[in-house]
Amino acid sequence: MQFTSKQRAYLRSIAQTTDPLFQVGKSAVSPEVVGAISEAFNTRELIKITILKNCPEDVKTAGITLAERTRSDLVEVIGRKVVLYKRFQENPEIILPRK
């Protein structure tokens, strides 16, 4: 999904006040991490993840890989934090601004 600048800014503002749920470390983007994040998308639409310094992958590469494997959208990569968004199919909690 391609976001407009307003939609991306709106999601970034929500993510700014949330704490990271997951940390990706030296095991990089393992199937266990992907499974846990996918499971978290059952209860949340927006997830913030910290990529630790001992992760062998680049932060942006790890974010893109996580988005692809969890079938979510990469909202932003800022510093060592990654924000992913996956809209609920029924009754979305986050209503994005119109295009």
Automatic annotation (TrEMBL):
One of its GO terms (molecular function) is RNA binding. InterPro entries: RNA-binding_CRM, RNA-binding_domain, YhbY-like_sf. Residues 1-97 form the CRM domain. Signal peptide: none annotated. Pfam families: CRS1_YhbY (PF01985). Gene3D superfamilies: YhbY-like. Keywords: RNA-binding. SMART domains: CRS1_YhbY. PANTHER family: RNA-BINDING PROTEIN YHBY. This is RNA-binding protein.
